[in-house]
Amino acid sequence: MRHAQGEAYFEPWIEDYSDGSGCLFHFHHDDINDEGCLVFAELFTLQARRWHPRPAGTPLGPRIPITMERRAIMKDDAAVAVDDHADYIAYTVRADLISERAAGHLTRHQSERSPYWERRPACYVIHGKSRV
Question: CA–CA separation, 15 vs 61, rounded Å?
Fold first, then answer.
C-alpha cells in the first residue's frame, strides 16, 4: 500500500492480517512509485507460495539474511530478480521502483520475521496435450 503524498515520513512496515491469511506492506509515498507497488505486490504474492508461517508449537527457524540490491539497469529489462533460498533471499531490483531507504527497512523487517516462516519445496504440475 502506498500512502498518500504529503503524509509525514514513516518507515515501511508490514501489517499482518488477523486471520493469518497474509500481510500488507505499507510504504510512504516517497519510497515507492506506482509501478513499484504493482511489481512488489506480484513479487510478494509469488513468494508467498514458497514461504509459509511455521506451524503452531514448532521451534523458530534461523534468522536469514535478506538483501536488496538496486540497479539502474536490469538484465533483460527485468523489474526484479529474486534468488530465493532457505538460508537467504537476495532481491535485485530496478532502482527507480523503490528508494534505498525503503529497500533497507523492508529487508531488515523481513529478516527479523524470517524465524517465524518456513520455506516449502516447490510443486510443479505440467499439463500436456491430451491424446485422442
Answer: 21
Q: Rounded to an integer, what distance in angstroms lies between the CA atom of residue 112 and that of residue 71?
A: 24
Quote helix, strand, coil % in the chain, to nearest 5: 30, 30, 40
- Is residue 103 a contact partner of residue 93, using CB atoms and an 8 Å limit? yes
Bridge partners, residue 2, by sequence? 27
- Beta strands 13-16 and 51-53: pairing type? unpaired
Please state, in angstroms and rounded to a whole number, the distance separating the CA atoms of residues 57 and 64: 20
Task: Using alpha carbons, list the distances in angstroms from residue 25 to 38, 56, 123.
Answer: 12, 24, 26
pTM: 0.81
What integer is the mean pLDDT of 28-50?
Answer: 88
